[in-house]
Amino acid sequence: MNTIRQGEGDSPSTQDSVPPEGDTGGLLKILRVRDGLAVTVGIVIGVGILRTPGLIAGYLGNPVAMLGVWVFGGVVVVLSTLVLAEMAAALPQAGGKYVYAREAYGPQVGFVVGWSELLVTRGFSGGAKAVVIAEYLVLLLGRGSVPILAATVVLAFFFLHTGGLRIGRDFQNLSTLAKVTFILAIGAAGVLGGDGTGFLTSMEVSPEFTGLLGLALAYQAIAFTYYGWEEPAKLAEETMNPDRSLPRILVGGAVAVAILYLLMNLAFLSALSPEEMAGSQLVAADALHATFGGAAGTFVTVASLVILLSSLNVQFLGMPRVVLSGHTSASVGLDYHHPPRPGHHRGLRISDEIHDGGGILRGSGGVGRDLPA
Q: Is the separation of the CB atoms in 285 and 296 below 8 Å?
């Protein structure tokens, strides 16, 4: 029995979490709310939070304004999740934004959205993360080839996810826990090593950043640090009770990230003045210097590695679901073909490779059915 989709039978809340024995077509509903929260925190919090506060300080210069724009950014993201949460609960299918674009505007738009995510927004960013991970490894080890290490990271994640959704889920939970631990440690070290003078001092900003331009640039930088908060929607079809769980995951994840970001900024202002933050290449390392001394840079490098590994794992969880959704949709989305015209072959055939790849992934348990526990 294939997984029942919204509108084809029982509501999502009444579907079984695990398909019956012998069923080879359905997706396992094994993701809980805490797993979805790990995905949100894992993909959203990147190394940007270790650098971006310095940019914000240069744009605004005032600690109250700096904290205020971070609060405002969090509120905007939380409100945005309410919109996506409604769509995710109404269409609890694998694929996320691809599904919503396909259902709202048709297969052509779904095709463009799906492939743009696969080849551009997620494909390039995933490759960039692998390269940065390799650079941090070379920095820590003192030797190594960045291209070889980056390729090794990608292959390691590939083989990890051929083990099935359970393995990918468990790795995400552990890596997100490690990420949050590092972030809290950085925050605690900043508070313990600082004297709080950052809350009492301001700096003069460049004339071009005065007024609304500074606020606009600051908000733009903050919005970028929240990129990826919609990622759990790609896993909707594998989420238990998606109509109830997905809103909790999306809204709860955004709130959790906003709180962590605010705590980090409070810690940085405890250790550094706005002027020191604005002149810093890596705010987190400078904030930790009073506590860890010369080891601050190494600590932040290790923290950055953990942060990036957790974030990259989410992309290996999410993007195959977009491909799978396009493959299993009846000749729409990623499997879209233009109508045949006289003297022409039938449209775009670039999804043929996806057909073969999707079958391999489903057979191995990476997408579709999971391997037996």
A: yes
First to last CA, the chain: 20
Q: Which of 336, 337, 353, 334 is nearest to 345 (CA)?
A: 337
What's the pLDDT at 365? 36
pLDDT per position as a tens digit, 144-179: 999 999 999 999 999 999 999 999 999 999 999 999
Within 8 A by CB and 6+ apart from 261, the residues are 45, 49, 70, 73, 74, 225
The region that residue 293 occupies, defined by phi over 0 for left and psi between -120 and 50 for alpha, beta otherwise, is left
For 175, 217, 271, 275, the CA distances from 59, given in Å and listed in that order, are 33, 7, 19, 11
Which range, of 58-72, 121-135, 247-261, 281-295, averages the lowest pLDDT? 281-295
Which residue do the tokens 């996320």 mark? 96
* H runs (alpha helix) in the chain: 33-44, 52-60, 63-90, 97-105, 107-116, 122-141, 146-161, 165-193, 212-225, 242-271, 274-278, 283-292, 296-328, 352-364
3-state class of 46 per DSSP? coil
Coil, strand, or helix at residue 31? strand
CA distance 37 to 250: 8
CA-CA distance, 11 to 262, in Å (whole number)?
38
